[in-house]
């Protein structure tokens, strides 16, 4: 991820029309406290830019060739989801836009006052996320790890007692049902949008959390991230298969094959024979 000034609102612009991108960029460059990281001409470029930069905000067109703005949102990993301001010539998508929690919905040609209003909203939300969002994430993490209520955790925090040790179980809530999955039974975990699929003993448990949070919970000597969207129990790996195209796949007990990114190869290098 590119290092940026955390005090600035970092943005990307996504629009298949070059004049629209350039025009919006010129107006945004005049705004203090804002940094344009990249301009993207389609959703695929935007997905790469989001994974690379993790911007605070994306100014996003809706109707684009290949992948729409809404489809792009569905592809973004939950823990790096930027705030979204839709910029479009069509007003019929407004309801759908706010259903995906867009910060604002701007119609082309964008009025200056509306653009300033959208930027102000995003700046305020960034501050709120920093002061309130992180506290909430920590609370949710502690609830999931300990199985205690948020009120009980609050008491522990006030008393100064330790909240958790490295867990033997993951507490996974599904509606009113709480399932305790032994960590030793987990084979691998993969991402599905804002949810994690925890695969253990032939069953799949759905958990609302992020890859980063799960990495922090699990023992790194056993559980390693081998792809942007996959964590694997290294004790389950039987072999590593290399393909002609340069890709690597981890073969787990039972024949499950998981793709491993080249950038994560060193994390399991002790499985390679020199």
What does this structure look like?
By secondary structure, the protein is α/β, with parallel strands linked by helices. It has two domains: 9-131, Rossmann fold (3-Layer(aba) Sandwich); 169-271, OB fold (Dihydrolipoamide Acetyltransferase, E2P) (Beta Barrel), CATH 2.40.50. The chain contains seven helices and 15 strands. The chain has helices spanning 18-28, 43-53, 69-75, 94-99, 112-146, 150-159, 211-217, and strands spanning 9-14, 34-40, 57-60, 83-88, 104-107, 169-174, 177-182, 186-192, 195-200, 203-208, 223-227, 230-233, 237-242, 248-252, 257-260. Strands 2-1-3-4-5 form a five-stranded parallel beta sheet, with helices on both faces. Strands 10-9-8-12-11 form a five-stranded antiparallel beta sheet, with no helix packed on it. A hairpin with a 2-residue loop joins β8 and β9. α2 (43-53) packs parallel to α3. The two termini are 31 Å apart. The mean pLDDT is 83.
